[in-house]
Design goal:
Elements (H helix, E strand, L loop, with lengths): L2 E2 L2 E2 L18 E5 L9 E5 L3 E4 L2 E4 L7 E2 L3 E4 L4 E4 L15 H7 L4 H8 L32 E4 L2 E4 L2 E2 L22 E2 L9 E2 L4 H7 L4 H8 L24 E3 L5 E4 L2 E4 L8 E2 L15 E4 L10 E4 L4 E4 L2 E4 L21 E2 L7 E2 L4 E3 L5 E3 L25 E2 L9 E4 L2 E4 L4 E10 L6 E4 L15 E2 L4 E12 L9 E7 L3 E8 L5 E6 L9 E3 L4 E7 L10 E11 L3
Parallel strand pairs: 4-22, 11-15, 12-18
Antiparallel strand pairs: 1-2, 3-4, 3-19, 5-6, 7-8, 8-9, 10-11, 13-14, 16-17, 19-20, 21-22, 23-24, 25-26, 27-28, 28-29, 30-39, 31-38, 32-38, 33-36, 33-37, 33-39, 34-35, 34-38
């Protein structure tokens, strides 16, 4: 506790309004990084720090979301929520003295007078006689330079203590406004909210709500003699000659007989002006802040040391680091443009990658070593406008073609292979259905006679079927050609309606929505023709062509 020229300062708190005004909004109290040990200074907010109301926010690295004890962090470190019922009344002001508590728990004014040690005169009224056994003789003088007490004749006037000039020493952290138990101001309701008065006895409340000392004496039932000193004469005409009286409202000085008692100065009501930063206890070193540590629980303010991603530049507090959560540690060196990979499963350790790089245009380049094979998975559906050697891409979605660019040419590296189909001469009847495969024979009207089997899985992606009538060309009614799978599902190749003798049924993207006709090992297909009812039937028709099959393991 500090003192005011011999007057002790109450160890309850310095309210925030008693400090020197901040020079601008968004300021803190601390000690600059380059200032060395000394008085606290005004700290400006630097990189990644901001104020929202009276809340200090730091953006970027260092604090993860989660339960931190009495505080829960959320929104990527942007919101700090104090848990319910952890801020007790003891953390908001400083203890009431033992003597004060003794008055507050008394049940009546009589009990409180007993606690105060008042005699029977305390409740009597009259004029003090000033007999020889209790006279006030001699002049009272003042010493010392502070001017918060003045004397004029027999009157001692108590003024306000100026915190800038009338106190000495540094105010310890413990004397700043606290949050402790057993105080008059606090919060007993659940959850956060406004400060409330803590319940005390009816007699205690009767004293606390009085506007001044006179009203409190009335509540206590004291008479006019209660404020006088000396020996009471017992007569109504007794007078107090040569008595010294006190003026002014602060009560940190009292008088009894010829004794003036200097009490503790209440920093809430008995001082005026703002407490300069220099009168706070000095910081132990440079780069310090005032706060309360995460593991310390509620209590007095402490010196806060700057940790990871925080630094001081002069009186400016700076935060560095990305917006991610947690520390990321990398190797001592890395490959330029190398694609970053995590090392392990912690999410905090990365490793160098010399096998794959990505340039400023988003192009991925892989390099194979003696023990690895370079591979790149590219998004399909994008064809380079100016491919260079080594580019790999899929031209369109749903098509299982994969292209590689080398020596000025585009190479289809997943083109699969073709399976030829044939049909010898036939003259189709009206509304008939014909089937053929890759055996050199005429089509038949019964399925499962010309199967083409597959012993590996893959996709049929295209079909090219030709028709030629060597006899009569026939009229132009529509002819449909299908690839029939397992004699259950038909996939249309094309429908053609013209009077030409030569007809072409072509489809480069069969079942395009699924990337082709899916084949599993053991499946089979036939070519199916649905003939119309012609005005003039074609004769001596021969057919041929092929289907494209891409094995899934090619």
């Amino acid at each position: 506790m500090g003192s005011v020229d011999g007057v002790a300062i109450l160890s309850n708190t310095v309210p925030a309004t008693a400090l020197v005004n901040a020079t601008a909004a968004s300021k803190l109290l601390g000690r600059g990084a380059a200032a060395g040990a000394g008085s606290f200074q005004e700290i400006s907010l630097g990189t990644n720090l901001s104020m929202s109301g009276t809340t200090l926010n730091a953006t970027g690295g260092g604090v993860t979301d989660g339960d931190k004890g009495d505080i829960t962090v959320s929104s990527s470190g942007a919101t700090w929520t104090i848990d319910n019922e952890v801020v007790s009344t003891s953390k908001m002001g400083g203890d009431v003295t033992t003597a004060g508590k003794a008055l507050l728990d008394d049940a009546s004014a009589a009990d409180q007078r007993t606690t105060l040690g008042l005699g029977t005169l305390a409740t009597q009224s009259g004029t003090f006689s000033g007999t020889s056994s209790g006279t006030n003789t001699g002049d009272v003088t003042l010493a010392g330079s502070p001017d918060y007490i003045t004397i004029s004749g027999q009157t001692i006037t108590r003024g306000l203590v100026d915190m800038a000039t009338d106190v000495t020493g540094d105010l310890p952290f413990a004397n700043m406004q606290q949050v402790t138990t057993d105080v008059l101001l606090g919060r007993s309701s659940a959850g956060t909210g406004d400060i409330e008065t803590v319940a005390c006895t009816a007699a205690g409340r009767a004293i606390l709500d009085d506007v001044d000392a006179a009203a409190q004496r009335t509540t206590l039932g004291l008479g006019t003699l209660a404020t006088q000193s000396g020996t009471f004469s017992g007569t109504s005409s007794g007078t107090n000659t040569g008595d010294v009286s006190l003026a002014g409202t602060p009560d940190y000085i009292t008088i009894s007989g010829q004794t003036i008692t200097r009490g503790l100065v209440d920093l809430t009501t008995d001082v005026t002006g703002d407490l300069p930063f220099a009168n706070l206890a000095q910081a132990s070193a440079a780069s310090r802040l005032l706060g309360r540590g995460a593991a310390a629980g509620a209590g007095d303010f402490q010196e806060i040391t700057l940790g990871t991603n925080l630094s001081m530049s002069g009186t400016t507090l700076n935060a560095t680091g990305g917006s991610g959560s947690g520390d990321v540690v990398g190797p001592a060196s890395a490959t330029d443009n190398g694609i970053v990979r995590f090392d392990g499963t912690t999410g905090k350790l990365i490793q160098n990658n010399s096998g794959a790089t990505i340039d400023d245009n988003g192009k991925i380049v892989t390099v194979a070593s003696s023990s690895t094979t370079a591979s790149v998975l590219l998004q399909e559906g994008t064809t380079p406008s100016a491919p260079v050697n080594g580019d790999l891409w899929s031209a369109s979605t749903g098509v299982r073609d994969l292209y590689y660019y080398k020596a000025g040419k585009r190479w289809n590296v997943n083109a699969g292979y073709v399976i030829n189909v044939h049909a010898l001469s036939f003259s189709p009847a009206d509304a008939s259905i014909q089937y053929f495969g890759n055996v050199l024979r005429a089509p038949v009207t019964t399925a499962n006679q010309n199967q083409i089997y597959f012993n590996v899985p893959g996709w049929i992606t295209a079909a090219e079927i030709y028709w030629y009538a060597t006899g009569v060309a026939g009229t132009s009614q529509n002819i449909d050609v299908y690839v029939r799978l397992n004699n259950t599902t038909d996939y249309l190749v094309a429908g053609v309606a013209n009077i030409a003798a030569a007809k072409r049924f072509s489809n480069a993207s069969l079942n395009s929505g699924s990337g082709g006709i899916a084949i599993v090992a053991g499946d089979y297909v036939e070519i199916k023709i649905i003939c119309p009812t012609w005005a003039t039937n074609p004769t001596n028709v021969v057919m041929g062509g092929y289907i494209t099959f891409i094995p899934s393991n090619s």
